[in-house]
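Please fill in the sequence for the structure shown.

STRUCTURE ENCODING:
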């Protein structure tokens, strides 16, 4: 039901897909602008790693079909490691600067956009009203920026684990492993991303709904998320699984279409999860109001002794 209601809300608020896409493009422009002063060093490292692992041959068709995914992933991971080695070898200061921009500044900008979409969805789900992206961004910046910074730091171990898992998949040299690779490259990241989403899904919604600060909101959001933990995990897993499968079936370039939809879908899913977990009524479209079960209906009988 959470997936169904999230998708219905996405269709009813599809304008947010375009607004968030424009924001993400602007965010990337800012990142590229920050990296521009060191263009020559970065680009030379990229070109050398690209040519060494012949990535042009991999991306020429724009797809990762069948067993080719094993070779493609190995080449991409090898090229990334070579690029990092070359970058730090040429200038360690530039290497550190690049890492800070890519792994901190860029996620912070992305999380600010996430908070804005959740804030806009709160207005629609609570009262059926729609608000502008830019006005919401400026109005919530003093709250979204601390949230984005703290969440980025908190998620670094999750992201590191996911990256290590991808590199680990390429480290196995058994030829028979090639047949399992297409399945593992879909299942492993989907499971890890679903765990990450489960532990973070209620963070932004609890800040917005209850007007908590970033630190007080996390435990409140965690309680809401774990109240329906299995549903949250399974729904997140299905969304990620579908995204990875579609990317492999339709081709690598299909990510250009998939990603702009996945990001707002997860923002909407988090709001739906929080409203449902708290037993709060919400609009799923302009003509339909959904009434989830109240907290006392959701909680287990053994938890009743804690109710006042």
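FILLED IN BY: designer on duty
SEQUENCE:
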């Amino acid at each position: 039901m959470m997936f169904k209601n999230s998708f219905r809300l996405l269709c009813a608020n599809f304008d947010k897909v375009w607004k968030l896409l424009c924001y993400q493009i602007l965010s990337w422009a800012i990142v590229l602008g920050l990296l521009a002063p060191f263009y020559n060093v970065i680009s030379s490292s990229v070109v050398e790693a690209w040519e060494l692992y012949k990535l042009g041959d991999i991306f020429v068709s724009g797809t990762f079909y069948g067993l080719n995914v094993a070779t493609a992933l190995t080449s991409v991971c090898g090229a990334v490691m070579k690029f990092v080695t070359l970058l730090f070898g040429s200038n360690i200061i530039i290497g550190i600067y690049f890492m800070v921009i890519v792994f901190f500044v860029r996620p912070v900008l992305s999380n600010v956009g996430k908070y804005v979409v959740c804030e806009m969805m709160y207005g629609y789900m609570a009262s059926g009203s729609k608000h502008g992206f830019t006005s919401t961004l400026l109005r919530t910046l003093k709250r979204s920026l601390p949230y984005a910074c703290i969440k980025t730091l908190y998620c670094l171990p999750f992201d590191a684990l996911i990256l290590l898992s991808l590199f680990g998949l390429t480290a196995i040299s058994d030829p028979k492993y090639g047949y399992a690779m297409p399945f593992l490259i879909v299942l492993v990241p989907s499971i890890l991303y679903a765990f990450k989403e489960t532990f973070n899904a209620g963070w932004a919604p609890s800040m917005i709904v209850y007007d908590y600060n970033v630190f007080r909101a996390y435990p409140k959001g965690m309680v809401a998320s774990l109240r329906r933990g299995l549903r949250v995990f399974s729904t997140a897993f299905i969304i990620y699984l579908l995204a990875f499968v579609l990317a492999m079936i339709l081709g690598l370039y299909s990510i250009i279409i998939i990603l702009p939809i996945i990001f707002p879908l997860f923002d909407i899913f988090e709001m739906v999860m929080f409203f449902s977990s708290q037993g709060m009524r919400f609009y799923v479209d302009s003509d339909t109001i959904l009434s989830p079960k109240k907290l006392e209906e959701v909680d287990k009988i053994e938890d009743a002794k804690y109710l006042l």
